[in-house]
Amino acid sequence: MTPTPPLRLAIIGTGGISQAHAAGILAHPDRLVCTALCDVSDEQLKQRSEQLGHNPALFHDWRRMLADYREIDAVIIALPHHLHGVAVLDAVAANKHILCEKPLCTSLEQADAIVNALRGTGLVFMPGHNQLFAPMVREIKQRLVSGAIGQLRWLRSQDCFINQADFAEAWRGKSQLQGGGELIDTGYHAAYNLMYFAAAPVAQVRATFGRYRQAIEGEDTASVQVLFENGVIGEILTSWAFAKPHGTHAIHLIGDQGELFGTNNVLYYLPLGASEPERIELPAVRTFTEQLAYFADCVLAGQRPLHSVEESREVLALILRATDSAAGWEPYAAKRPQGRP
Ligand SMILES: NC(=O)c1ccc[n+]([C@@H]2O[C@H](COP(=O)([O-])OP(=O)(O)OC[C@H]3O[C@@H](n4cnc5c(N)ncnc54)[C@H](O)[C@@H]3O)[C@@H](O)[C@H]2O)c1
Fold this sequence. Notes:
The protein is α/β, with parallel strands linked by helices. It is 33% helix and 24% strand.
C-alpha cells in the first residue's frame, strides 16, 4: 500500500553520514518525518535524536524495531558495508521501502538475493547515489543527452581528497567489513557517475590500486580503466591519499563535437573548434536533502527511482571486477624479453 505524507522513516545506523540524512528529513517536514532510530551505540542514538529535536523511538536491534514498531514506512540504511545486505533483506521482508547508502552490499551473491527479494513487492529501493542530485551531474547529463558534445568517446570521473580520518581500528580498516577499500567507499560515487554518463553496459575493466596514507587492509587509492560496450573509454581516479590532480576536473567528457568538464558548481562547455570554454556557474545544493525529497516523491507516487537496485548492482559488479583485476597483475619481470633489464 502506498503511504500518505509525511513518509515515516527509520534510520538504521546513526553514525557520521546519518547527520546529513537527518538534516534532509528536517528540510522536508511536509513530506518526511523520522519516527525511529536504530544503532548499537547509545551515544550515536543520542546525537541523532538531539539533532532531530523530537523524540523518535530508539532501538539497538533493527530486527526488533522492524518487528515491533508499526510507525515506519521506509528505512534509511547507513550501516558499515558488511551489514547492508542483511539489513536490506530484513527491510524487504518487513515490507519497508528502502534508501540504502552505498554500496548496495559487498558481494554479487547478496546483490542478486536483494534483486530477487525485491521483485514483485512494489517496494521502492533507492541506492544512496546522492551525487546524481548535484546540479553538475544533472546539467552534464542533460547536455550530453541533448547532443551538445555529439557522440561520447572518452570520460573521466574523479573523487580524490586527503582523508584525515584514522581508519586503522574502524570497520573501514578491515577489508571484510568494508567490502574492499576506498573504491567501494568514496570511489562508489565516481563509479556510478561514470556509468550514468557512459549509459552502456561495461565490456572490460582494468585497475591499479595503491595504499599510501591509510592504515587499512584495502587500497586507499584506485585507478580504474573501463571499456563500455558502446566503445566509450572511461577512467576513474579516486583516493583518500591525495587531492584531485591540479588542473583536472571531477568530471570530464569528450565527444566528437566538444567537451564538458567541471568540478563542484562550475561547469565548462567547449564546443569543437572553440578555443575558450564557456563557464557556467551552477547553484550549490545539499545533495542529501535533494535525494531525500526525491525518495519521498518516488515512494509516495509508487515510482521507480532514476537509480534503483539494478544500477547499484552494476556499480558493485564494476568495483568487484576492478578489485579482482588489481589483484591479478602479472609481475612485469615474468613478461620481460630475455636479455632486457
Ligand atoms: N553518500 C556519501 O557521501 C557517504 C558519506 C559517508 C558515508 N557513507 C556511507 O554511509 C554508511 C555509514 O558510513 P558512516 O561514515 O556514517 O559510518 P559510521 O561508522 O560513522 O556509522 C555507522 C553506524 O552504524 C552503527 N552500527 C554498527 N553496527 C551496527 C548494528 N549491528 N546495528 C545498528 N547499528 C550499527 C555504528 O554504531 C555507527 O554509528 C556507509 O555505507 C558509507 O559508505 C556515504
